[in-house]
Design goal:
The structure holds two protein chains of two kinds. Helix content of chain A is 79%, strand content 0%. By secondary structure, chain A is an all-alpha fold. In chain A, helix 5 crosses helix 7 and helix 6 runs antiparallel to helix 7. The longest helix of chain A is centred in the N-terminal third of the chain and has 34 residues. The mean pLDDT of chain A is 89. By secondary structure, chain B is α+β, with helices and mostly antiparallel strands. Chain B is built from ten helices and 20 strands. In chain B, helix 4 runs antiparallel to helix 5 and helix 5 packs parallel to helix 6. Chain B starts with a strand and ends in a 27-residue tail after the last strand. Classes of the chains: A mainly alpha, B alpha+beta. Chains A and B meet through helix 6 and helix 7 of A and helix 2, strand 7 and helix 3 of B.
Chain lengths: 232, 380
């Protein structure tokens, strides 16, 4: 079945999956941390942090992409710092595409985890405290298992958002086949060339199939996780 | 052993209460909103009071004078919550052992496994270990919650109305376990309740709380016999507690004879051996007063005594305390009867109690009554 696709198409599909996977994975610990801060923290500037986290949801993706370019581009302050100190380069690399996707999916992930944190019965955490558990163990053994469904949902949302990301990615890291050309940008490119309609349609179907599979798997996983969290 | 003094303000409500206890089961009794739960939350470290000094077993847990506030997790106060608060994602076994992960290493030595089995056995939860809390009944949940608190090896167990969310049948199921805990586990207990029957049955010491303050403190029988506290202990359920022993059985009529300092009582058959100790509660409303030893009367129990104290009239009703050979008995009469009979303190009277009045609410002792002792009607 794979032979039905051209090597270029396969590259785009593989790259899309890779970018979405790493975008999801890297935003996970940060997402849990920020969700905890927003759900539990009491500090000055919390509304501001909340607004900043949600900005990518409401800003035009092109603006987000341009901001990333300014910050993480070759000449951007963070981009230069990371390249010189750690050798990490985002500009025109697939890692940059993953960064753009992570940023775009971040509000969805934080929202999902935060909602499940708000739903945790904090009296259970008090109970764990009376049994001798310190805050770390309370989080690890009580809170984390109880918010697992929200974490899984957040991961899937972030993954799905990454698969569909277009504007920020193309603005930040352009549309380089084999490096930054993901499914949406590949489809866009195909539509720009005469006779590319059929190939674009095939990739569109692939895109639909991947998204649908992600959603179905997530529903099943969330269902299982929430049954476990409720002890059913 | 336990010394608690707490002052804290919640909006317009002021909690300012202090009590001490030498062990056993101390009941904090009072209406909802009297400050009972806040008091045990302060003991457990879940509430940080404005002013407080809390000492358990020689360890200072809170002292605002010197700035001591031991974290909840280091207090080793076992807390049984009203709603159980079992961890839903863990099995019963994992719930039970949760506190043991964090117990100091010295408490995990040899014999620790035996202790787990012993407590599982004490609470009758051996068959539930693999289940999750969602699949337990209310009574089972509370027993597991008690076991979980005990297995963390607490120096003190606090229980916040552990039976409040249960129906009568489930309560009757758990009460004997709490009695065994009080008598066998050797852990002092502070028990919050607003149910007279529960407190009468379980408590060694009773602290009556009213609007954030301690209204009375003392041995349960002494507090229950105080008619000035009836407005707080609840008029309808108010009653004195009598210490008795099983003196014999009357199989022909299905009765059990109980002996107390105040005299003999005949009650519906109890499945207890002769000599067994039993606390019974005689409700004020179940006691009639006669001036002469009654004849031609169906009631089987007549205890002679003197009027010790007559309470203030509350409309048509008057409560009085009788002294029956040193034991306190309380009676609830109409004001009219008091006047007709000319009852005044010092007067010799006979307290008449129907055997049928001894329903399952009346037995407050260490052993639960047999089902046969449950009278169908209270006043039939």
């Amino acid at each position: 079945m794979l032979s039905a696709f051209s090597p270029e198409e396969l590259t785009a599909i593989r790259l899309s999956l890779r970018v979405a996977f790493w975008a999801m994975l890297w935003s996970l610990p940060v997402g849990i941390g920020v969700a905890l801060l927003l759900a539990r923290g009491r500090f000055w500037g919390k509304p501001l942090l909340n607004a900043v986290v949600h900005l990518p949801l409401v800003m035009p993706p092109v603006v987000t992409g341009y901001l990333l370019l300014l910050l993480f581009g070759r000449k951007g302050p963070l981009g230069r710092l990371l390249a010189e100190s750690l050798g990490i380069v985002f500009a025109f690399r697939w890692t940059g595409a993953a960064l753009a996707c992570a940023v775009m999916g971040f509000p969805l992930m934080v929202r999902s985890i935060r909602l499940s944190l708000d739903a945790v019965d904090r009296r259970l955490e008090d109970a764990a405290g009376t049994l001798g558990a310190n805050p770390f163990w309370v989080f690890a053994t009580i809170t984390l298992p109880l918010i697992l469904p929200g974490i899984v949902a957040g991961m899937i949302l972030s993954f799905a958002r990454a698969l569909g990301e277009f504007g920020a990615t193309i603005t930040f890291v352009s549309n380089i086949p084999g490096e930054t050309q993901t499914l949406p940008t590949a489809i866009y490119t195909l539509l720009q060339v005469p006779g590319g309609d059929f190939a674009a349609l095939r990739l569109t179907l692939v895109s639909i199939a991947i998204s649908l599979a992600a959603l179905l798997v997530s529903e099943a996983v969330i269902e299982r996780a929430s049954r476990r969290a409720h002890g059913l | 052993m336990l010394s608690v003094s707490v002052a804290h303000r919640f909006g317009s409500f002021v909690l300012d209460a202090a009590f001490e206890s030498a062990g056993g089961l101390t009941a904090l009794f009072g209406r909802s909103g009297a400050g009972k739960t806040s008091l045990i939350n302060a003991i457990a470290g879940l509430l940080r009071p404005e002013r407080a000094r809390i000492v358990v077993d020689g360890a200072v847990l809170t002292d605002t004078e010197t700035g001591v506030f031991v974290a909840t997790r280091r207090r080793r106060i076992g807390y049984v919550f009203q709603e159980g608060r079992l961890f839903p994602h863990l099995t019963v076994r994992q719930n039970l052992l949760y506190g043991r992960w964090f117990a100091p290493p010295m408490d995990k030595g040899p014999g620790a496994a035996g202790e787990v089995d012993q407590i599982i056995d004490l609470l009758g939860i051996a068959g539930l270990l693999q289940r999750r809390p969602a699949h337990l009944s209310g009574g089972e949940k509370q027993r597991v919650a008690i076991g979980r608190a005990l297995l963390a090896r607490p120096r003190l167990l606090v229980m916040d109305e552990p039976l409040a969310s249960l129906d009568e049948a489930r309560k009757t199921e758990i009460l004997p376990y709490i009695e065994r805990l009080r008598d066998e586990a050797g852990v002092p207990i502070v028990y919050v309740s607003h149910q007279v029957a529960e407190v009468a049955r379980l408590a060694t010491t009773m602290v009556v709380l009213n609007e954030g303050r301690v209204a009375a403190i003392g041995p349960t029988a002494a507090i229950m016999g105080r008619i000035d506290l009836f407005p707080l202990t609840g008029r309808a359920e108010a009653g004195a507690i009598l210490a008795t022993r099983v003196a014999g059985h009357d199989p022909a009529f299905g009765l059990t004879i109980l002996r107390s300092a105040a005299g003999e009582l005949r009650v519906p058959h109890l499945d207890l051996p002769v000599g067994a100790a039993l606390r019974i509660r005689i409700r004020a409303r179940d006691v009639m007063i006669a001036l002469t030893p009654p004849e031609g009367l169906s009631a089987l129990n007549v205890l002679p005594g003197t009027v010790a104290e007559i309470g203030r009239a509350d409309g048509p009703i008057v409560e009085m305390r009788l002294d029956c050979a040193g034991e306190a008995l309380v009676a609830r009469l109409t004001r009219r009867s008091v006047e007709t009979l000319g009852l005044t303190p010092g007067r010799l009277v006979y307290a008449v109690i129907k055997s049928i009045a001894f329903d399952h609410h009346a037995f407050a002792g260490t052993a639960p009554p047999s089902p046969g002792a449950d009278a169908e009607t209270r006043d039939g």
